[in-house]
Amino acid sequence: MSEFGFIKARGWIEVIVGGMFSGKTEELIRRLRRAEFARQKIQVFKPVIDTRYNIEEVTSHNQTMIKSQPIEKSEEIWNHLKDDTQVVGIDEGQFFDQNLVQVVQDLADRGIRVLIAGLDTDWQAKPFEPMPTLMAIAENVTKQHAVCVVCGAQASRTQRTGKALDKALVERVLVGTHDSYEARCRDHFKPEVVVPFQL
Ligand code: ADP
Ligand code: MG
């Protein structure tokens, strides 16, 4: 039996989505640690672009961390994959291109449990590929929420805020943390760059 209460095939896909600060990375690390407790061999990958913290580690906003392999393209997973790996974790899935979908399918078809965490929407609340497609093909999807910094309600959106305004306005990808993003609920989210609520 599994933590979902039914007998699973060996290979499958679990997706963890939500806005920034919703605990995706913490949840990914929690599941990976549980797999390690079960003496399963794990490998963790993250996109090179995510340079916010230590390059060799996946790190949550809460500073929980796990060792990871930075890669530029999802296909590089095949170069690093060890024969005895049973669980593959991937963080910041939205920073990979659409090929991630095929890589993840092939890993699961090989009997590997694949966990992918990533943003389901971008700073304009638009679906952020390849996460929506991964959600569709996954065996299991978890949607997480942060806390709205304005009112304390469940936050489903990632608000882009003031600093580096010019850059923030044009680029879909602006790697940052509290300096350029806030967790907001539907009521307090605007699909534009705003002055930070928490200064
Ligand atoms: P994600 O990977 O989804 O961006 P992390 O797992 O890195 O999220 O970080 C989650 C942690 O972020 C929480 O446990 C909490 O300590 C912190 N945090 C900071 N701001 C908020 C917020 N507005 N709502 C919820 N958690 C927040
Ligand atoms: Mg994260």
Describe the overall structure.
The protein is an alpha/beta fold and 199 residues long. It has a domain at 12-144: Rossmann fold, CATH 3.40.50.300. 21% of the residues lie in helices and 25% in strands. The protein is built from 5 helices and 12 strands. The chain has a 6-stranded parallel β-sheet, with helices on both faces. α3 links the parallel β6 and β7. The N and C termini lie far apart (47 Å). It binds adenosine-5'-diphosphate and magnesium ion. The site of magnesium ion has 3 residues, from α1.
List the helices and strands and how they pair.
Layout: E1 12-18, H1 24-37, E2 42-47, E3 57-59, E4 65-67, E5 69-71, H2 77-80, E6 87-90, H3 99-109, E7 113-119, H4 131-137, E8 140-143, E9 146-147, E10 154-155, E11 157-160, H5 165-170, E12 181-184
Parallel strand pairs: 1-7, 1-8, 2-5, 2-6, 6-7
Antiparallel strand pairs: 3-4, 9-10, 11-12
The chain binds adenosine-5'-diphosphate and magnesium ion.
Residues 24-25, 91 line the site of magnesium ion.
Offer a few descriptive terms.
binds adenosine-5'-diphosphate, globular, six-stranded parallel sheet, 199 residues, 5 helices, binds magnesium ion, alpha/beta, two-stranded antiparallel sheet, Rossmann fold, single chain
Q: What proportion of the residues form beta strands (DSSP E)?
A: 15-25%
CATH fold-level topology of the domain at 12-144: Rossmann fold
Largest sheet: 6 strands, parallel
In one word, what is the shape? globular
Mean pLDDT: 90
Query: What is the CATH architecture assignment of the domain at 12-144?
Result: 3-Layer(aba) Sandwich
Helix content: 10-25%
Contiguous uncertain segments of 5+ residues: none
How do the strands line up in the largest sheet? Answer: 5-2-6-7-1-8
Distance between the termini: 47 Å
* Rg from alpha-carbon coordinates: 17 Å
**Global structural class:** alpha/beta
Number of strands: 12
Q: DSSP helix count?
A: 5
Note the run of SSEs as H and E: EHEEEEHEHEHEEEEHE
| Name of the CATH homologous superfamily of the domain at 12-144 | P-loop containing nucleotide triphosphate hydrolases
List each distinct ligand once.
adenosine-5'-diphosphate, magnesium ion
CATH class of the domain at 12-144: Alpha Beta
